[in-house]
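Narrative summary of target 7.
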Amino acid sequence: MPLLPAVVPGRVSHTRRVPLRHRFAYRTYQWLVDIDDLPRHGVLASFSPSDHLGSPDRTLRENVAAFTAEQGVALEPDDRVVMLANARSLGYVFDPLSVFWCLKSTGELRCVVLEIHNTYGERHAQLARPDDTGRFSLGKEFYVSPFFTVNGRYDVLLRLDSEQASVAITLVQDDHRVFSASFSGRPRVARTAAVVAAALRTPFVTYQVWALIRVHGIRLWLRRLPVVPRRPHVPSKGV
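Modeled conformation, tokenized:
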């Protein structure tokens, strides 16, 4: 396990395969934190329960525990929950995907929670139990891209160690790999110098995420990729 809290400079890539081919990649950084010991770096980075699943009136730990309990997994008091996510920076956060590793006191993985946010202000969380290689599959239950229906499955590969924090997700629909997205980076202890360096390399990072999603969406729309109608999302209890 990396020393926490950590900043994780890395790269995001997206590849769309059908019906149009479209690919992009960009430099960014995320945070890797113990949710029982959330760091604060002023306007450069902060974390709030209101930015994630559950009630803003509870701690992030309480919200994650409530969600896993609803899914049949009880967290023990000495379990550790490690989150890979964007921090709120310069007053704004948009976090397409947050990953929570729920670890027993022995370091053994109990489960993971994936929390997805879309650009309509909706969010959805799902629980999984990866195999020993960090792989698992989940049914697609949430409207994310306006160009994909809510069907199919996600094939996911996670890695978390001192050398790398990474997430790779492939959307499979009708037995075809139609879309892939990934983030990979190397954790660095979040000393002030490392935080400032990451912010200088990728300024306005959360605004960048918001802008790139819209720019590439507009490009696809101009190429006449059909938009799939969206039904309002009804979150499950605790999300």
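Residues 85 and 98 are 5 Å apart (CA to CA).
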